[in-house]
Amino acid sequence: MGNVATRPEEQKWQDLIQQELKPLVSNIDLEHHYPKHFLKQLGENGWLRSASLSETDVSLREFRLMEDVSHACMTTGFTLWCHLAALTYVRHTTNRYLQEEVLPSLEDGAVLAGTGLSNPMKFYGELERLLLKAKRTEGGYVLSGTLPSVSNLGEDHWFGAVAETDDGGRVMLFVPCDTEGITMKEKVDYMGINGSATYRLKFNDAFIPDDFVVSEDADAFVEKVRPYFLMYQIPLGLGVTEASIHSMKKISNKQAGCNQYLPVQPEELEEEWNVRRQEVYQTIEEGITWETLVKQRLGITYLTLKAANASMIHNGGAGYLNISAPARRLRETYFLVNLTPTVKHLEKLLAN
């Protein structure tokens, strides 16, 4: 299996996870602490830079990084996914201002960003209408409407957005959160993932200049980048599944080894995890496609659900504590099930 990340590089980010992220996991999960400093460190260490690397090499390195982060904390893995999705938009745009002035800051960790494509992805899946309207004006667009949930945001962050134009087309933009006319309201009442800096955004005639236009043809652009959007979600499940397997193995001898009589065992989960993981890495190396990734994302999500549930049962009463790692991973997994595209959306795509 190919992996562009060097062993010293992997060891360095694994050390950072142990030293900087793991002590925060409980606060991230239970106190909705947003791991902004940790996310910035990933960029500061050069692990998000794409210069001199092929597109495949960038994907392999960032995929591997996502796995390790999600193994420790899927909320943080999710916020990293948000940032990588935003990076994908700017890496693929032909807008020179975004490429030359914004992309370096995103890759170096100076600026963090969210996706903003939950509603558009559902729109393109014929599940929702577009929630933003864009009116053409001199030098840019004026946006109105509301996005109910956009994650990995803050006053100094950016995010992607797709809006319907006056002529019935769709435009994609990259928007700073401090734009005049945008109101942000934080949301922290979820079952889990409350440390993800998720906000409700209201646009009241917010002016977005042409310099921030990702594409005047959002339909074609989203079709181009959506495989990356989906690909970067898969290591969320791989990381949580691996952590769940490890937790079951760790307690296999407790209470006279009675876990051996349970119907789901860590060894069988690990075997499936290895097969599915190998398949995804092979897909990245050979060339990602939307159709292949839909199947892989769905299969790994169901495996993650099975592993997190089994871990709760194997851990018994200790896992039933709200502060336990198995309980946290179960909450994280139910978020993954409902992360756009949700499992029911993915099932619909496969059925059609």
UniProtKB/TrEMBL annotation:
InterPro entries: Acyl-CoA_Oxase/DH_mid-dom_sf (IPR046373), AcylCoA_DH/ox_N (IPR013786), AcylCoA_DH/ox_N_sf (IPR037069), AcylCoA_DH/oxidase_NM_dom_sf (IPR009100). GO terms for molecular function: acyl-CoA dehydrogenase activity; flavin adenine dinucleotide binding. Gene3D superfamilies: Acyl-CoA dehydrogenase/oxidase, N-terminal domain, Butyryl-CoA Dehydrogenase, subunit A, domain 2. Residues 14-109 form the Acyl-CoA dehydrogenase/oxidase N-terminal domain. Pfam families: Acyl-CoA_dh_N. This is Acyl-CoA dehydrogenase/oxidase N-terminal domain-containing protein. It comes from Salimicrobium halophilum. The lineage of its organism: Bacteria, Bacillati, Bacillota, Bacilli, Bacillales.
